[in-house]
Amino acid sequence: MSSNAIVPLDLSALPSTSIGALETFEDIAKGSDFLGRLQLFGKGKYVDKGLVRPGCFGIPVSADEAIDLGQTVDILPLARRPKAIDMSDKPVVSVYDETSEEFKRIAAQSEVKNSGCQYGPSFLVIERSTGRFLEYFLGAPTHRPEAKKIYPNLPLTANDIERMAAAGVDVTGMEPHGPIPVTLNRKYIEKEFSWYVPVVLECSTPFTKLPPMDKIVAEITKFLSQKSEVEDAPAEERDLLDVLEVASGMHFVTTETQVRGINLVVVTGTLAQWRGAVISGSRVRGACQACYCKILQLFEQAGLNVWNDCTKKPDGKLFLLEDKRK
Question: How far apart are CA 59 and CA 52, in angstroms?
Answer without folding.
Answer: 9
